[in-house]
């Protein structure tokens, strides 16, 4: 099966978490916005599917993964689906639930990171948020960044199979997502991360291991990898990087 991934062109965003899983799995996928005509093609194809009366479970928003006749949305949901299919999650129910729980925690973290530059909501430009964003970012860096980094450091430390991966003794999709979060934080808050990283050696070591996996390394070096920019989830505004 060749999957179809629907996400906006030009930004890594939430679609990048899905791309990393597809790349690590080594499966074929068509990135509609990049491979089939850009944003207009993405919107048109999505609208056709969503307006089709034969689509009983229409997604709310991208990312959307088309797998055969299925349309799957919500990043964590897509990753749960791919994890089971492509050995990026444990085979037992308890293991799958724990893996999904970690991904949902990462989703909460990602939302908080996004809100550092858009604390008043997503409908206005950053310039309209500057005062509130400065306060929100300061509180995030002081309180929430160490809380999340500390949590994933403890998860790695307490893993009965060792501290190489978040779940068991093999890579799973939350490992890939944690890698992307660290990449994004280094882009958005380079000064704050430079001060923080030495305290979370297991998390940073995991980031390094993921980056060196053959398929991931090849993807990161390719033109398919979209650079971070000031249109996505992770944005670098120097005034927020206190």
Topology:
Layout: E1 3-6, H1 15-25, E2 29-31, H2 32-35, H3 38-51, E3 64-67, E4 70-73, H4 75-85, H5 93-117, H6 130-158, H7 173-188, H8 190-196, H9 201-212, H10 214-220
Parallel strand pairs: 1-2
Antiparallel strand pairs: 1-3, 3-4
Helix pairs in contact: 1-4, 1-7, 1-10, 4-5, 5-6, 5-7, 7-8, 7-9
Write up what this structure looks like.
The structure is a single chain. With 242 residues, the chain is an alpha+beta fold. 56% of the residues lie in helices and 6% in strands. It is built from ten helices and four strands; from the N terminus they run βαβααββααααααα. A four-stranded mixed sheet has the order 2-1-3-4. A hairpin with a 2-residue loop joins β3 and β4. α1 packs across α7 and α5 packs antiparallel against α6. The protein is globular and about 50 Å long.
Number of domains: 2
Helix-strand pattern: EHEHHEEHHHHHHH
Biggest sheet strand line-up: 2-1-3-4
Strand content: 5-15%
Note the overall shape: globular
Q: Would you identify the CATH architecture of the largest domain?
A: Up-down Bundle
CATH topology of the largest domain: Glutathione S-transferase Yfyf (Class Pi), Chain A, domain 2
> Measured on Cα atoms, how large is the radius of gyration?
18 Å
Report the average pLDDT across residues. 93
CATH class of the largest domain, please? Answer: Mainly Alpha
Percent helix, as a range, is 55-70%
- How many distinct beta strands? 4
Distance between the termini: 47 Å
